[in-house]
Amino acid sequence: MEVSVLVTTYNHEKYIAQALDSVLMQETDFDYEIVILEDCSTDATREIVLAYQKRHPDKIRLRLATQNECSNKPFVEGFQAAPSPYIAMLDADDYWTSPKKLQKQVEFLDAHPECALCFHNALRIYEGEKRGALPHNVAGQKRISAIEDIWEHNFIAGCTPMVRKDALGTFPEWYHSLLWGDWPLYILCALHGKIGYIDEIMGVYRIHSQGFWSKLDVIQKLEWWIAFYETMNANLGFRFDSVVKPLVSARRKELADLRSL
Questions:
Q1: Dihedral pair phi/psi, residue 192, rounded to 5°
Q2: What is the CA radius of gyration of the chain?
Q3: Mind listing the pLDDT tens digit for each residue in 70-85?
Q4: Which end of the chain is more exposed for a tag (fewer CB within 10 A), N or C?
Q5: Does the global pTM surpass 0.90?
Q6: Full residue range of the structural domain in which residue 243 is found
Q7: Boundary residue ending a domain (199, 214, 229)
């Protein structure tokens, strides 16, 4: 087994089939598995994933929560239990568009042992809005990034990363209770290697009204951003003060300017 695809889902009955179909369409010269982390949805999500697993018993494994956990612990357990050297991730409200996505990312990581993870571009779509779709990453996105870059902002769309499993080892206990799982994961990976970028759109990152981040106004987003920087820096023993303190200062200035309006 070369790749384990972790699909996280909660109340995604509207999207989950498209997400799973986009993983099942992958064309590879290696074996891969799909592990669905279903967090005790209150809609029909669980019934849908059960039906998919019944149709694809050799490809799909289910990890069904007995209660809604609202934590990163199920992801950590799924990650650490995976038998594969590479882990790909997909939130169930997003989907992949290229059948060669997994193949290209495995080939990239095989060719770049200095990279702990790689990602690709995605199309950002705004559901329920009149805004047109846009590439998630700009034309100048670095082909190889370092930990200082990922500290500045999270430029990796949630449907795009593939992680080298042995770059992490065990997860710190504090990771379980973090508000976000993705950005801290990329920072932890970047402690052990570079971040590679494939300049090709191979997925769709969907922004919709039910997303946590979408529900926040500009001031709330800045507050969360500052809290994230300070919490992560503390969790890592303040080793990144020289990187984080200027970022916090800049966000606090933005926040003060907005509150003065």
A1: -120, 5
A2: 18
A3: 788 889 999 999 999 9
A4: C
A5: yes
A6: 216-259
A7: 214
